Amino acid sequence: MIVNVSEAKTNLSKLIDRVYHGEKVVIAKNNLPVADLVRHKPTGKRKLGVLRGTVQVPADFTEEDNAINEMFYGRPNGTPA
């Protein structure tokens, strides 16, 4: 399927759906093909754990901070600061 740029801009969602279902769409400018709209294929396998050992989580990471809680919720029982 060949579509001109103006038609591609107008119908991009429909064209993406067609590509998703396996069709190749050629985008043309002044009826000259300039780009192919094809389904994305990952180039390589994802590598997990790249930052392992470089990030340190503090021991008190999950503990609450009273000052921050006061900023969000105010002081308990409306007591003044």
How would you describe this protein?
This protein has helices at 5-10, 12-20, 66-73, and strands at 2-4, 25-29, 32-37. The protein has a three-stranded mixed β-sheet. The chain is an alpha+beta fold and 81 residues long. Helix content is 28%, strand content 17%. The mean pLDDT is 89. The relative contact order is 0.12. The chain has a domain at 2-37. It contains three helices and three strands, in the order βααββα.
List keywords for this structure.
81 residues, alpha+beta, 3-stranded mixed sheet, 17% strand
Quick overview of this protein structure:
This protein has 81 residues and is α+β, with helices and mostly antiparallel strands. The chain is 28% helix and 17% strand.
Q: From the alpha carbons, calculate the radius of gyration and give it in angstroms.
A: 27 Å
The helical percent reads 25-40%
List how many beta strands DSSP finds.
3
The global form is: elongated
**Spatial order of strands in the largest sheet:** 1-2-3
Q: Please, how many helices?
A: 3
Task: Provide the low-confidence segments as ranges.
Answer: none
Structural class: alpha+beta
Strand content: 15-25%
Largest sheet: 3 strands, mixed
* Overall mean confidence score, pLDDT: 89
Order of helices and strands: EHHEEH
Architecture blueprint of SSEs:
Layout: E1 2-4, H1 5-10, H2 12-20, E2 25-29, E3 32-37, H3 66-73
Parallel strand pairs: 1-2
Antiparallel strand pairs: 2-3
